[in-house]
Amino acid sequence: MVRVKRGTTSNKTRKNVLKQVKGYRFNRSNKEREARVAIAHAGNHAFAHRRKKKGNFRRLFTIRINASLRALGTTYSKFIDALHKQNIELNRKVLSQIAQESPESFKRIISKVTK
Predict the structure, then answer these.
(1) In this structure, are residues 92 and 56 in contact, taking their beta carbons and an 8 Å threshold?
(2) Which of 24, 43, 46, 94 could make a disulfide contact with 28, Cβ separation 3.0–4.6 Å?
(3) Homologous superfamily of 7-113 in CATH?
(4) What is the DSSP letter of 21?
(5) Half-sphere exposure of residue 32: CA atoms within 13 angstroms, side-chain side
(6) What is the pTM for the complete model shown?
């Protein structure tokens, strides 16, 4: 049977692993074993924080809407309650964009909801 030397394959794998951890600090950036651990942890954090990011943005939207509403004399909870009662389906992202970019339109929405 023919002898297979695996130096090229393992070097290629090692090079790819080290390319992924370029810029990491300490041993993680130049030792393969440490690099593999760092990649695994980074992947776990990236997965978890992609989910967390959605909640963070929702909180930001809520804060922006509430700030605009307070300036116009009402509160977030009353406004959202009125939206639900009138079956107006605007999500918080759109509402915060409207509140930030065109306050006149946002005033019209509030006046329509809080009759």
Answers:
(1) no
(2) 24
(3) Ribosomal protein L20, C-terminal domain (1.10.1900.20)
(4) T
(5) 8
(6) 0.70
Provide DSSP, the chain.
------HHHHHHHHHHHHHHTTT--GGGGT-HHHHHHHHHHHHHHHHHHHHHHHHHHHHHHHHHHHHHHHHTT--HHHHHHHHHHTT----HHHHHHHHHH-HHHHHHHHHHH--
Indicate the domain borders of the chain.
7-113
Residue type, 33: R
Instruction: Name every residue whose Cβ is closer than 8 Å to that of residue 57 and which is 6 or more positions away in sequence.
Output: 93
Instruction: Give residue-wise pLDDT tens across range 19-76.
Output: 999 999 999 999 999 999 999 999 999 999 999 999 999 999 999 999 999 999 999 9
Phi, psi of 19 (to 5 degrees): -70, -35
CA distance 108 to 32: 60
